[in-house]
Amino acid sequence: MVSMRPTSALLQSHVASHCDGPMSDDRVYCSDLCLASGEPMPGTAVEVDVWLLLEYRPAWKPKAIEDNDLARRTRDWLDRTLAGIAKSGRKARAQFIRRPELDTDETTLFIAEAGTLKRFRSLGYDDMQGLTLDSPRFEEVPETHYFVCTNGQRDLCCARYGLPAYAALRTLAGSRTWQTTHLGGHRFAPNVLVLPQGAIYGRVFPEEVGAFVETIETGALSRCHLRGRSAYSPEAQVAEAFLHGAQKLRSVDGPTVTFETANGTAAVDIQPAATPLEIIASCGRTEPEAVFPLQPVGRPRRETA
């Protein structure tokens, strides 16, 4: 891929829009700049082994998980749960979720790990206090659920692009669609977490939602939107996106990633690009930063079954 700085006109417009204030009609958003730069998305998904998604309906602040109005008892339970997961050597991430258009007395908690999605519903948060990840009080949820980052308090792109994507997804997937807090990678907005698949997708624009959902509902990855499967390292995320027919990750050995496929095993080397891209990471920044996107080197090496 040929590297490309955000065009000077775009970058100058982005800086000027900050000077003009948040209501400027000609603001340039980080998602627009990222798209113009040609930055590839595979390998950019946050690494997470266990997702904990808790319904929280009040307004979300920029760092909603740390700064919210949950009762101290509930926040302590959440902290203990996350710490327990981390102690086991797994990477955990908490998200707030909501469906603003629904009026319900129930509060929902999802836990996702190892390709499974479980749900617990209660009246408020008190009944969650004694829950553990293996509690029989969870019900397994086989249906695909969509979680769209819409927290405009964290980054303007998440509201500007996330909210229309949420509306389009909700039209097709109904109550299986939720808004969620920051998923990382503002510049790839609209971002969507799909569970129990465990993949994060970017640039899921409303006009592409129909094809996106059609692909996901078959159990396949939407490769043109794929940022990565969160349980994988960045290198493995890139390899899975590159290797069509990849079924199961076998190993990551330095730069070499090996997957099982329908036709045997395939290995590919993943390396940072030699030439950096200069990107604007979020709408709150004006200074570009250099990134070296991971990319496959050479052709896959296949071993037939």
Commentary on this structure:
By secondary structure, this protein is of the alpha+beta class. It has helices spanning 8-20, 30-37, 72-87, 156-160, 162-173, 209-217, 234-242, and strands spanning 50-55, 92-98, 106-113, 116-123, 139-140, 145-149, 177-180, 192-195, 199-201, 226-229, 246-253, 256-261, 264-272, 277-279, 289-291, 294-303. The strands form three sheets. The chain has a ten-stranded mixed β-sheet with strand order 5-4-3-1-2-7-6-8-9-10. The protein is globular. The relative contact order is 0.16.
Q: Briefly, what is this?
A:
It is built from seven helices and 16 strands.
Count the helices. How many?
A: 7
Reading the helices and strands in chain order gives: HHEHEEEEEHHEEEHEHEEEEEE
CATH class of the largest domain: Alpha Beta
Helical proportion, percent range: 10-25%
Radius of gyration: 20 Å
